[in-house]
Structures are given as structure tokens and as C-alpha cells.
Amino acid sequence: MSKHTGSTQDTASLVEQCAQNAIELLRRNSTPQGILAATPSAEAEARHYTRIFGRDAAICVLGMVVTGDEELIESARQSLLTLAGHQAENGQIPKYVDPLGKEADFWYLGCIDATLWWLIAVCFFDRQCPERKLAKELSAAIEHALTWLHCQEHQRLFLLQQNEASDWADIMPRSGFVLYTNALWYFVKEIFDLPHREETHFHFNHLFYPFSRHTPDYRRLRLLTHYIRNKTSRSDLFLSFVNFSFWGEEGDIFGNLLGILLGLTDERPSHRILRALERSGATRPYPIRATVSPIIRDDILWRPYMGRHRQNIDYQYHNGGSWPFIGGFWVLALAAIGRSAQGQAELEKLAAANYVNNWAFQEWFHGQSGEPNGMHGQSWNAAMFLLARHGLDHKVFDPANFKPLR
User: Fold this and answer.
1) Sheet order of strands, 96-97 included
2) Which of 336, 260, 255, 259 is nearest to 289 (CA)?
3) What is the pLDDT, as a whole number, of residue 5?
4) What is the CA radius of gyration of the chain?
5) What phi and psi, each to the nearest 5 degrees, are found at residue 373?
6) Among 105, 199, 210, 338, which residue's beta carbon has the most beta carbons within 10 A?
7) pLDDT score, position 6
8) What pLDDT is stored for residue 8 in this prediction?
9) Is residue 393 exposed (0-12), middle (13-18) or buried (19+ Cβ within 10 Å)?
């Protein structure tokens, strides 16, 4: 941990220092085209972190606009405009855009969550900064993006379908119906008052938590849940994904937190999920791991690409590494169900994580040892710290904060 984590005065000071350093980092990572994923360096350039990523930038927008800082608000606006300017002909928002305008990338197997997060961020920006009329300016791009997402939707389950390795966890084997993606899809439906959102909510809960006594009416959904109930033990967490006859039990923490924050659970399952995460030790040494348990090499879900550069082995990267930006969603989930005091304590741990290596805002940490890894100067670490701090006193993911202005 940090040398600052001792007395109450020390931790309060660390939180304030982290907030100031987060703002400075976001200013440093801003360009005329928008917010970069990480601070420019030779290593960052080699790994393409000096790009405006669809999901990263959109998540950053949420934290940047609540600061009230005009420089950050303008960077947030330019990020969303730049991504819209490289929207594909079919409506998809790119995985990332080169700020020099040379390249828009859509990933090997596609990138589904960039479009979802972009829509969410545009709406949040518009509600926080209504005088700028961003949603009106981007109305055609919004409709185009929604049409593309509808084309990915199963027409009986009303859930999005995707390839494996095609969202933020882009070297993980989740495919078919993915928890994380469909939590975002439900929230987009709620924001835009899209059709079949009740069916999306119903099928989300029955597919990703197939342990209720209620039997779904749709025959193919019954078959999918039948496979799971016959071959796995009851869990307190949502499954990470469901495909035909196979599914994920590693415990996708980001997806479970979004289920709570985006209106897919009521009070009882929300508390059940958070208690399970606490029991798992996933909040230590820093909040919070990407998965409760890693997918090991002899697991049926292991893929050879997960071992590339030894990056996604046990308790590393997406496979059980600790990510401070997800820790921001953990703090928000605690606050959302009335556990603000605990959320404050976890925010202090996040500040300590960002302080490591002299305010490096390190990308991720080993999920057991706490060793810092990945790229330094991560924009979404900074933005999510600011949003989590804001969220201790404000309900961030209230749909009313995102509904398009008329």
C-alpha cells in the first residue's frame, strides 16, 4: 500500500491528492481530437495506447464532465465527436481512432462495447452539459449506432450476441450471450426507451442466473438453462457468458457490478453479489480483480491466445488481475445500495493504487501479489476515480441522468 494510508487525516489527504493528480493526468492525456488511453511514451505508442479508444474514452467522459473543468469537458466532447467521425458505414463505433486521423480500428473479431459505451457517454454528456446540444449534433450517428446494435440482437431473447474476445476483455473466451455486454445493452434500451427492454431484463436474469424456480416459456432458453443447471452448482454471481452448451463460471466482476448499477438487479441479489465478491477476496490487495477466479490452462475455456506474451495467465490482466478503473465501479455499486462508508474506504484504497510508482495510475496489478503491471498513466483510472468520488454523494447511473433531452 501507500505510505499515506495511516490515519484518517492521511487517507483524506491521499484522496484529495489523487483527485488533483487525476485531473492533471486527464489534462496531460488530452489532445485536440480527444482523450488518449494513456500518457504518450515510446512503449505506449508501440502498444497503440496513444489512441482514442471507443470504450476507454466514453468511460473517461463520465468522469471528466462531473469535474466541471472546462478543459476536460471540451476534451470529452472532442472524444465523442472524433469517434463519431470514424463511425463505420454500418453504424459501428470503432475500437480506437488514431488522433492523427490515419486509422480507425475495429479489432480482429469486432468490438461490440465501444458502440454501447459511446451511446451512454453521449447521453450523459448531453444531460450534464445541455447548452452544448451534443446529442442533437450527433443525432444521425446515434440512430445509426442503435440500428447496428439491433442487428446484433437475438430476435427471441432480445440479448446481444458476439464473438469471443470482442469486448474490453479482448483476450478472454466469452462469446455468445455475454453478461457485461448485455448489462450495457439493457441500459441503452432504458435510456432510449427502446422496444423489448422488459424482455431483455427478463432473459438477462434467467440466462445469466439460471437458478430460479421459474421455467422460461421459450423452448431454446429452457434448453440453455437446462444444460447449466444439470452441470454446475448454484452460484451467488451471474455467469460471465452463455453459449450453446458451455458457459463462464470464472466470475466476471465488471459484468456483475454493471448488473447492479444499470438496473438489472433489485436489492436482495445486489447484496448477494457484493457479499460474494467480498468473500472471494477480490478487493485485495487493491480493488478490484477482473475475475473472481482465473481460467487455468487445463480448463476447457482456456485458449492458446491467452498465454501470448504470458499476459493473461493466472491473476494477470483480464484473467484475475486487479484493475483500478473497475474499482471505481465497485465503489459506485457500494454507494448505490447504501454502503457509502465502505465505498469511501474502498475509494481510499483506489487512491493508494493510483499512487503506486509516484502517481503512475498503473493499468493493472497482479491479483494476488499486488505487483504493478501494464501501462502507466491510464486515463480511465483517473476518470473512474473522479466519478467514484462524485458517486459517493450522487447516484450516477440513474437513467434520468442519461435520458436524451427533447
Assistant:
1) 52-53, 96-97, 104-105
2) 255
3) 43
4) 20
5) -145, 170
6) 210
7) 47
8) 53
9) exposed
Are residues 138 and 184 in contact, defined by beta-carbon separation less than 8 angstroms? no
Nine-digit cell string for 75: 476534451
CB-count exposure of residue 61 (10 Å: 0-12, 13-18, 19+): buried
Take residue 118 and report the three cell numbers written for it: 459511446
How far, in Å, CA of 233 to CA of 289, rounded?
22
Rounded Cα–Cα distance for residues 254 and 379 (Å): 18
What confidence score (pLDDT) does residue 405 get?
A: 83
> Cell for 54?
471507443
Name the helix (H) or strand (E) containing 104.
strand 104-105
CA 38 to chain centroid, in Å, comes to: 17
The ranges of the chain with pLDDT < 70 are 1-9
pLDDT of residue 373: 97
pLDDT for 154: 98
Q: Which three cell numbers stand for residue 313?
A: 495467465
With a threshold of 0.90, does the pTM exceed it? Answer: yes
DSSP tally for the chain: helices H, then strands E: 15, 10
Whole-number pLDDT of residue 212: 80
For residue 7, what pLDDT is reported? 52
Q: What is the dihedral of CA 31, 386, 139, 29, to 10 degrees?
A: 10
Q: What angle do CA 237, 242, 246 make, to 5 degrees?
A: 105
Place of cell 446540444: 133
* 93, amino acid identity: I
CB 222 within 8 A of CB 215: yes
pLDDT at 28: 98
Residue type, 230: N
DSSP line for 126-149:
HHHSGGG-HHHHTHHHHHHHHHHH
